[in-house]
Amino acid sequence: MNLTQKLIASHLVHGDMVPGSEIAISIDQTLTQDSTGTMAYLQFEALGIGRVRTKRSVAYIDHNMLQSGSENADDHRYIQTVAAKHGIWFSRPGNGICHQVQLERFSIPGQTLLGSDSHTPTCGAAGMLAIGAGGLDVAVAMGGGAYYLAMPKVCRVWLTGELRPMVAAKDVILELLRRLSVKGGVGKVMEYAGPGVATLSVPERATIANMGAELGATTTVFPSDARTREFFSARGRAGQWKRLEADPGAEYDEELAIDLSELHPMAACPHSPDNVAHVSEIAGLKIDQVCIGSCTNSSFCDLMRVAGILAGKHVAPGVSLTVSPGSRQVLKALATNGALAKLVASGARILECACGPCIGMGQAPATGAVSLRTFNRNFYGRSGTPSAGVYLVSPETAAVSAVTGVLTDPETYSGEPPYDVPEHFDIDDGMLLAPAKDSESVEVVRGPNIKPFPKAAPPAETLSGVCLIKLGDNITTDHIMPSNAGLLPFRSNIPYLAEHCLAPCDAGFAQRAKDKDGGFIVAGGNYGQGSSREHAALAPLYLGVKAVLAKGFARIHRANLINNGILPLVFADAADYDAAAEGEEIVIDSAPGQIAAAAEGKAVTATIGGRPAKLRLDITPRQRDILLAGGLLNYTRENMEA
Ligand code: MIC
Ligand code: SF4
Questions:
Q1: Is the CB of 213 within 6 Å of ligand 2?
Q2: Residue 420 falls within a domain, yes or no?
């Protein structure tokens, strides 16, 4: 077996491991963060489960960190108390970004992790099967329920050679995005193997695993080898390490190869992570902002390289440089060894250990600015400034460019001093709070910002309404449910958030949906790529959206739609997509009967503007039952005993 198959086989509770068919796996660990967590815990509470039944569940506070009103602090207090009550560890604000801390403190080779964040696959760097999902799926897993997914294909990425100086792990994943696009990993696990793997440290593997999410991949898996053991023993966890790798001669569904020594620095240009160019081709572009950090590139090694490049220099006059360390462990190590002083002396603006600018929580660039970021997403508007152009680059490219003031190929730059990775980090888990032993003693504190969330209902006999909007390909969840410093505080207030649904595409969408009493969304391919935020399904549900008719869907968003009782329908004939127009009436007769028949492979028939159209609803019997029950919450409640 390959490693992915081994990890799945050891957790398989339902189904056959045939690519595309439905399987269910048991979940050892879960994580949530605060921007999806409030909703996930409200749903967990609605399920009526007492204490979590996982080996470990952790609630992080890392996204909604600007407290410009009481909302975020209220939600943090809710998460802290609900976690204490239900057996969940709590990572206090300031302790770091969920994926970085989970990798450092809780990752265990061979275990499964389900997280309510699309970059949960980061822990694949340590030989875990780590998958991102919607909050409701994570809530069910916390309650001991299995996680259902389509058995992925496994794509082997065979690495040879070694990265040249100033070429980084980021350039490896940007090369894959260049080759495969943001749709290239859909339905697949990217499994790394080959002699080049041993040249990459766990934090470097984490950068690659993290951004596998941008390929649309189900997850990314690295073997657990001597380098992994090194990572664990430096963090006082040698006892939790074990060796894991594919069997010799294991078979794969797909294969591709990268010679690391042939790579050169790359950049993802606005506004998509797969719009990749060599830095040398676009060098010289004047830049206004550089942001270093995020769950992709904020490890100790990343920031040591940055400090090495910036040492003794100043940030160029026209540039604002921010640095956000991934965790308190990283920040403390930099403070202890003097690297932090170099960063401060260079003029870098040191931000707290959190997502920060990556999710538009501050640092929105100036109008029309060029911003270089070591992050993973540069979707339109995500920085908080729609007119800004965001380029995704390695820490090396970012740091060198911050000094020169123009996009600069770091390979043209000499002088990066070597640095030592400590054999042992100073371990201090004081900001990780264990859950209360006695649940009864904890009172869950709910702030006034928590509003009842919309709940789906079983489908009506006839689904009818207008096409509220017609969208193109690759619409992201940042389009569907934008996130920024102004909106993130309302993640537990769906009625408020819904006002902004699809606003980057059409500011009139929410009002139109209300005026028309709901309706349908028509979209192109890869609809809902990006974040795991369930809000991208909950806001449309609140606005009365009954189905999304698209050319194709991204994995997590599709599951979120089904979980919330919204039909993800795929055009069988692209001509029907071409012909559809905003404002046309869409009718699906005998909806419950057609949903039941769809699980048997039958097409769903509808009329769009009076024209008959065939749609595919590729659902399993379980997904049929979820849709007919009116969503996963109802379904789980009904089936709790079983
Ligand atoms: C993101 O990077 O888009 C986020 C913010 O981390 C999201 C989660 C969210 O929307 O809260 C993700 O990646 O799932
Ligand atoms: Fe946070 Fe950005 Fe990572 Fe999402 S991608 S978890 S916002 S750092």
A1: no
A2: no
Whether residue 96 is found in the same domain as residue 151: yes
**Residue that is last in its domain, among 227, 244, 262:** 262
Give the number of domains in the chain: 3
Residue 80's CATH number: 3.30.499.10
Between helix 300-310 and helix 202-211 the angle, nearest 10°, is: 100
Domain identity same for 221 and 317: no
Residues 6+ apart with CB under 8 A from 205: 124, 125, 126, 169, 192, 197, 222, 227
Per-residue pLDDT of 39-83, as tens digits, reads 999 999 999 989 999 999 999 999 999 999 999 999 999 999 999
Active site residue 16: no
Cβ neighbors of 191 (< 8 A, separation 6 or more) are: 2, 3, 4, 154, 155, 156, 157, 220, 221, 222, 246, 252
| 288 in the same domain as 251 | no
Residues 6+ apart with CB under 8 A from 485: 66, 68, 360, 361, 362, 364, 384
Whether the model clears a pTM of 0.85, i.e. scores above it, the answer is yes
Q: What is the pLDDT of residues 481-539, one digit of tens each?
A: 999 999 999 999 999 999 999 999 999 999 999 999 999 999 999 999 999 999 999 99
- Tell me how far the alpha carbon of residue 336 lies from the centroid of ligand 1, in angstroms: 31
In a domain, 458, yes or no: no
Which domain covers residue 366, as residue numbers?
Answer: 266-412
Give the atom of ligand 2 at the shortest distance from the alpha carbon of 376. Answer: 5
Q: Report if residue 432 sits inside a domain.
A: no
